[in-house]
Design brief:
Elements (H helix, E strand, L loop, with lengths): L4 H21 L4 E4 L11 E5 L2 E7 L12 H14 L6 E5 L6 H9 L7 E5 L1 H10 L1 H7 L1 H10 L11 H16 L5 E8 L2 E8 L4 H4 L3 E5 L6 H13 L5 E3 L6 E5 L6 E4 L3 E3 L11 E8 L2 E15 L3 E8 L2 E8 L7 E6 L6 H16 L1 E7 L2 E8 L8 H20 L11 H14 L4 E2 L6 E4 L6 H7 L4 E14 L2 E17 L1 H12 L7 E6 L6 E4 L26
Helix pairs in contact: 1-4, 4-5, 10-11, 11-12
């Protein structure tokens, strides 16, 4: 049913045109509907495509704008056009719900005489054509018309005027009709956009035995390596993964079974996956490492899948932060295949360290089993990985251990950060060594600031003269900033065996001290030779040793030790 333009009125006309303009231009341009019809700018809808501007002027004139009647309409159109030209658009479109006469069309096009603008008209024929292309819009705006007609025949329900309740009733009724297609099988249908998906469902547990449905794939290949592997894992070992064979990978799909299903499909995309979980899926399980009969390590998890295929069996197990997949050929003399993948995302350092230790166990090789309450469901012998595979993980383990110690010391717990800057990594290492009670050289501390109390003493003058001397001073709370979090470590001692007041601080400080204005004056003290100060937590047993404290190295691969 077409829109009855002469009956809908100005507000409905505006809404329909706005919807059509959005549908036509939204994909490539920015569409703006301007509030206030006939406003000062003469713009009802503005379409911007880069620097190109297209203006739409809406005039609800169902019977046009002839010169014999409605004489003010042409003046209104011209006034709107003139106001719109202030914005210098490249195109101006008049939208009206009527079919223009030649004289009316000539009048509109004459508006552009002498101007660098294209003038176009969207009349009733143009609007009808656009709504035919975008049929869902037309259906949306003509529902009330259809409802009035449907009431005559008592068909309000067919138009779903009851909303979601009517949709549910119609779907159930359609499902009931589908149930009558076969004694053993039915289909559950769902709409996903413009695609209708049918799911085959047995009416009873023995449907596949009484009335088997067989899918035969003809002319498979050639397949990409990852597709071939997916087929091997799924069909050969019964692994619960979705497999997709794109169009062209299969020449023909033949479906045999009940008459309503039987068909041949050519150049079809084929997808399959597990219909349901196995009997033990979801039960607790342990990944156990063995030395003979002795259990050397055990990690808890959940058994997610047990599968059986034409080649052998499959086991999939999930652990905190990790996932194990085991493919076991039926002949026991053939080697099994084990894949272990892990992610530290969202884990705190202690849990991440456990995952990393599990990975090292797998890399080290040896005998293992996946055990449940009913016994072992899989296992085998893992060959050891090359020693080179341990390098990166050693640094990762050191980082996690540092973070775990510092979090525990400061009682601030958070997941492992995705990344740290070079400075944050060094600061974390410094913090971990301090938490362990060590003295450490802080690479970020080339100077400390001391505040004079104003007393003119020989010791103060010796210090301000630049005399080299040991420094061992208490300092308030010390903290490091890691991943945007401030981790407090506690009070520290700042120490160095050879320190002196910086040359640029000496003169002004001595002058202030001599003039008895030294109280509150700050001076910078630096290690001799451009080194860095040492730190140790005040609670450490060696903290009172002063200059006798020996710093430990940072021990970070790839970082030069500070001095």
């Amino acid at each position: 049913m077409a829109v009855e333009w002469e009956r809908i009125g100005q507000p409905a006309f505006d809404r329909i045109v706005e919807a059509v303009v959005h549908r036509v231009y939204d994909a490539a341009a920015r569409v703006e509907a301007v509030n206030g019809r006939g406003g000062d700018d003469g713009i009802d809808i503005k379409v911007s495509h880069g620097s190109r501007i297209r203006v739409f002027q809406l005039k609800y004139y169902p019977d046009g704008f002839p010169t014999t009647s409605h004489k003010g309409r042409r003046g209104s159109i011209k006034a709107s056009f003139t106001r719109a030209m202030r914005g210098a658009p490249q195109e101006w479109v008049l939208v009206v719900p009527c079919v223009l006469t030649p004289a009316e069309r000539t009048f509109v096009r004459s508006l552009a005489d002498g101007l660098a603008v294209e003038v176009e008209v969207w009349d009733r024929a143009t609007l009808d054509d656009l709504l035919a292309v975008h049929a869902d819009l037309e259906a949306s705006f003509t529902r009330s018309q259809l409802f009035e007609a449907a009431k005559v025949y008592g068909q309000e329900r067919a138009l779903l005027m009851g909303g979601v309740d009517d949709v549910s009733a119609r779907v159930r009724a359609l499902g009931g009709q589908a149930d009558g297609l076969d004694d053993h099988w039915t289909i559950d249908s769902a709409r996903q956009g413009d695609t209708v998906v049918h799911t085959l469902r047995g009416k009873h547990p023995r449907a596949h035995e009484v009335s088997p449905v067989v899918f035969t794939l003809t002319g498979i290949g050639p397949l990409a390596p990852e597709q071939s592997e997916a087929v091997r894992r799924s069909l050969g070992y019964g692994l619960d993964e979705k497999v997709v064979l794109p169009r062209g990978a299969v020449e023909k799909v033949t479906v045999t079974g009940p008459h309503f299903l039987a068909r041949e499909l050519e150049s079809a995309e084929v997808r399959w996956g597990p219909a349901e979980a196995g009997p033990l899926a979801g039960v607790d399980a342990d990944l156990v490492f063995l030395d003979g009969d002795q259990v050397t390590a055990s990690y808890p998890g959940t058994l997610k899948h047990l599968g059986l295929g034409s080649v052998g069996r499959s086991v999939r197990m999930e652990l905190a932060g990790g996932r194990l997949q085991l493919l076991m050929p039926a002949p026991p003399e053939q080697a099994a295949s084990l894949t272990f993948s892990f992610s530290l995302e969202g884990l705190e350092p202690a849990a991440a360290l456990r995952v990393l230790r599990l990975h090292r166990r797998v890399a080290a090789g040896g005998a293992f089993e996946v055990r449940t309450d009913v016994g072992a469901v899989g296992g085998g012998e893992i060959p050891p990985s090359p020693e080179a595979a341990y390098g990166d993980f050693a640094q990762l383990q050191l980082f996690l251990e540092d973070l775990e110690v510092v979090q525990r010391h400061s009682e601030q717990y958070f997941p492992v950060p995705d990344e740290l800057s070079r400075e944050e990594r060094i600061a974390l290492r410094v913090a971990r060594l301090l938490a362990d009670g060590h003295c450490v050289i802080c690479p970020f501390l080339p100077e400390v600031r001391l505040t004079l109390n104003g007393r003119d003493t020989p010791a103060a003058r010796a210090l301000l003269s630049g005399e080299v001397q040991p420094l061992h001073l208490p300092c308030g709370a010390f903290a490091v900033l890691i991943a945007g979090r401030r981790l407090e470590l506690g009070p520290v001692f700042v120490s160095h065996p050879e320190a002196a007041v910086a040359a640029d601080s000496r003169g002004p400080a001595l002058a202030a001290l001599t003039a008895e204005r030294g109280d509150g004056v700050e001076v910078g003290v630096r290690p001799v030779g451009g080194g860095r100060f040492r730190l140790i937590l005040q609670r450490s047993t060696t903290a009172t040793a002063g200059s006798g404290m020996t710093p430990v190295p940072l021990g970070l691969p790839g970082y030069r030790e500070p001095r």
